[in-house]
Design a protein that fits this description.
Structural class: alpha/beta
CATH topology of the largest domain: Rossmann fold
Oligomer: single chain
Strand content: 15-25%
Number of domains: 4
Shape: globular
Largest sheet: 6 strands, mixed
Order of helices and strands: HHEEEEEEHHEHEHEHEHHHEHEHHEEHHE
CATH architecture of the largest domain: 3-Layer(aba) Sandwich
CATH class of the largest domain: Alpha Beta
Number of helices: 15
Bound molecules: adenosine-5'-triphosphate, magnesium ion
Length: about 425
C-alpha cells in the first residue's frame, strides 16, 4: 500500500536531466548561430559586383554586370589609367564607382580546383562501415565503371527499369570517413583499370568573392568534372549552400540562390549530359541543407563513428599495423594485445562525444554517442611513430600512445554536434 503513495521522484529527476540537456543544446546552438552570422557578414563584405566595361566616356564608364544590367559609373582618378573596354571592373557595393580593374572574365580561370587522378585510397583502407560503403558503391559504381554498368544492363533488360543516376549525401560527425569513402570509390575503380578522377570542392569555395559569379563557378566545376570523367565530384560542406540562402533578400543571398539553382540544373541534366560523373555531397549538418537540394539526394547515408570497444580497437589496430610497434604489446597480426588496449580504453572511454542529426522529410533521426573518431586515432598513431623515430627509437611504445590519448582527453572531453 505504501508503495502507491510514494512520490514519483524518478520522472522529476528525468525531467531535470532533460532540462539540463536542452539548456546545453541551446547554448551550443547559440554559439553556432553566432559563428554563422559572422561567417555570413564576412562573406557579404567580401563580395563586390563585377562587370564588363563596355564604354568609357571621360570620367564615367558603362559597366554591364553578368546578370545583364548595365550601370553608368564614375571612374576615380586612381584607376583612370587602367579602365578600358578590354577589362572587367570591380564596383563599389552601391555600384556607383569603379574600385578596381581585373582581367577580362574569359581570360581568367575562376577556380583552381585540383582534380586528383586515380587517388591512392582503396576500399580495404576503410575500417568498419561495411554497410555504408556497400550502399555508396551500389549507388555510384555503375555511373563510373563501364563494366559494372554492362552487368547491370544485362540483368535489368528493360531500360525503363534502370534507375536514374542521382546524387548521394553522406552525413555524420567529423573524421568518420566521409571524404575517405568517396575517394576510395575513385581509387578502387582506378586500380581495376578504369581511371577515375576525384574532384573535391568545398561549398564555401564556390560562393564567389564576386557577386554574380557563384553560378558560373558551379558551371565550371561541373564542366571540369565532365572533362575529367569518369569523375567522383565531391561537394563538401553542403550545408553552406542552404545556410547562405537563408539570406536571400540581400545581393549575396540572391547570388547564392542563383548558385543553388545552377546546381539543381546541373544535377537535373541526368546521366546523358553528366556522363560518368557521380556527385556525392557531404555534411556534418544535414538539417541545414536546402530542401530543394535535399530532394535530389537519391541516397542518404549516415557515416557513424565507431562506438563499441571492439570497433575502436579495430581501427586503432589497423593504423598500428602500419608502423613498428613494441613487440611486447602487439600480437602476431600487428594488433594490440587486449591488456595493452585496456589501458587505452580506460583513458578514453569516459569521453563523451555526441552527434545528433535529423532529416525529418526523410524520416531520419540519428543520435550517437561515441568516444573517439578514426581521424583522431590515425593522427595519434602517426604522431607516436614520428616522435619515436625522432627519438631514434626502433618502435612505438605503449607509453607514447597512451600519453597522446591522454592529451586528447584533456583537450576536449565533451563535445556535441546537433543538426
Ligand atoms: N572508417 C575509417 N577507416 C579508416 N580510416 C578512417 C576511417 N574514417 C576516417 N579515417 C581516417 O581519418 C581521416 C579523416 O577522415 P575523413 O577525411 O574521411 O573524415 P570526414 O568524415 O570527411 O570528416 P569531415 O566531416 O571533418 O570532413 C582519413 O584520412 C582516414 O585516414
Ligand atoms: Mg570530409
Amino acid at each position: 500500500m505504501a508503495e502507491q503513495n510514494a512520490p514519483e521522484y524518478p520522472p522529476a529527476l528525468e525531467l531535470e536531466k532533460e532540462l539540463t540537456r536542452k539548456e546545453r543544446q541551446i547554448e551550443y546552438l547559440q554559439t553556432e548561430l553566432r559563428r554563422y552570422h559572422n561567417l555570413m557578414e564576412e562573406l557579404k563584405q567580401g563580395m563586390r559586383p563585377i562587370g564588363t566595361v563596355e564604354e568609357v566616356k571621360g570620367d564615367t564608364a558603362l559597366v554591364r554586370l553578368s546578370g545583364g544590367q548595365a550601370f553608368q559609373v564614375s571612374i576615380p582618378p586612381e584607376v583612370r589609367d587602367k579602365v578600358n573596354t578590354s577589362v572587367d571592373a570591380v564596383l563599389s557595393p552601391t555600384k556607383g564607382v569603379i574600385v578596381d580593374v581585373i582581367e577580362r572574365m574569359r581570360d581568367r580561370s575562376l577556380l583552381e580546383y585540383q582534380v586528383e587522378k586515380a587517388p591512392k585510397v582503396f576500399y580495404e583502407d576503410i575500417v568498419g562501415l561495411g554497410k555504408e560503403l556497400l550502399s555508396l558503391r551500389q549507388a555510384i559504381e555503375w555511373i563510373l565503371d563501364p563494366e559494372t554498368r554492362t552487368r547491370r544492363e544485362q540483368i535489368i533488360r528493360d531500360p525503363r527499369m534502370l534507375e536514374e543516376a542521382g546524387s548521394v549525401l553522406l552525413f555524420g560527425p567529423p573524421g568518420t570517413g566521409k571524404t575517405y569513402m568517396a575517394k576510395a570509390v575513385a581509387g578502387t575503380i582506378s586500380k581495376h583499370g578504369q581511371h577515375t578522377s576525384f574532384l573535391k570542392i568545398e561549398s564555401y569555395e564556390i560562393v564567389s568573392k564576386w557577386l554574380g559569379e557563384s553560378a558560373k563557378n558551379v558551371k565550371e566545376v561541373f564542366k571540369l568534372a565532365r572533362e575529367s570523367a569518369p569523375t567522383v565530384l565531391f561537394i563538401d560542406e553542403a550545408d553552406a549552400i542552404g545556410r547562405a540562402r537563408m539570406e536571400a533578400t540581400t545581393d549575396a543571398g540572391r547570388d547564392v540562390q542563383g548558385m543553388l539553382n545552377q546546381i539543381l540544373t546541373e544535377l537535373g541534366e541526368g546521366f546523358h549530359v553528366n556522363r560518368n560523373v557521380a556527385v556525392i555531397f557531404a555534411t556534418n549538418y544535414p538539417s541545414v541543407i536546402d530542401p530543394a537540394l535535399m530532394d535530389r539526394m537519391k541516397r542518404i547515408i549516415y557515416v557513424p563513428p565507431p562506438k563499441t570497444r571492439e570497433e575502436v580497437k579495430r581501427i586503432l589496430d589497423f593504423y598500428l599495423s602500419k608502423v613498428e610497434v613494441d613487440p611486447s604489446i602487439s600480437k602476431y597480426d600487428g594488433g594490440l594485445t587486449e591488456e595493452a588496449f585496456d589501458e587505452i580504453w580506460r583513458i578514453i572511454r569516459s569521453r563523451r562525444q555526441v552527434y545528433e542529426a535529423s532529416i525529418p522529410d526523410r524520416g531520419i533521426i540519428v543520435k550517437d554517442q561515441y568516444v573517439i573518431t578514426p581521424r583522431d586515432m590515425k593522427n595519434i598513431v602517426q604522431e607516436a611513430a614520428s616522435e619515436a623515430s625522432f627519438q631514434g627509437e626502433p618502435f612505438v611504445t605503449i607509453d607514447r600512445v597512451t600519453t597522446l590519448f591522454r592529451n586528447l582527453g584533456s583537450e576536449e572531453r565533451d563535445s556535441r554536434i546537433v543538426s
